[in-house]
Amino acid sequence: MNKALTLLxxxxxxxxxxxxxxxxxxxxxxxxxxxxxxxxxxxSSEGGSLSLASVYRVLKELSISGxxxxxxxxxxxxxxxxxxxxxxxxxxARPEIVCVMCNRSMDIQLPDLRPELNRLAEExxxxxxxxxxxxxxxxxNCAGK
Length: 145
Ligand SMILES: [Zn+2]
Known about the structure:
Layout: H1 2-10, H2 17-28, H3 36-45, H4 52-64, E1 68-75, E2 78-85, E3 96-99, E4 105-107, H5 113-123, E5 134-137, H6 140-143
Parallel strand pairs: 3-5
Antiparallel strand pairs: 1-2, 3-4
The chain binds zinc ion.
C-alpha cells in the first residue's frame, strides 16, 4: 500500500481508496499484464466494492498519469486491453535525446512529457502505448565534423 501511496503523491494525485487498491494489485502482480476484469475480480475477492465501470475509469486516470501502462495485446485468438504497473522512473519511461551520428544519449528532464502526450492522445481518442520517447539530433561534436 505504501508504494502505491508514494506513486500517487509523485503525480500529485489524491490517494483515493480505489486508486490505492488498483495500484497495489498491479504492484503485487509485478510486470504481469492484467485485464480490467481480472483486476475487478481481485478487488472483489479482497472485499472491495468497486464496480467494473469504476475499475475501468480509475485505470484510465492512472494510465493518463503514467502510473499504469495499458495496451492491446494478442492472447491466443483474442486481442485484449491489458494493464500493468507503469514504468514511471524506469529507463524506458524517460524521454531521451539521442545523436543520430554517434548514438550518444542525453536525458531530458521533463517528467511530465509522457503523461502530457498521453493526455493529448486520449483527447484525440488515440491509444497511447509505452514505447520510448526518443528525440533524434546531431550533437555539437558531430555537427562540427
Ligand atoms: Zn554525436
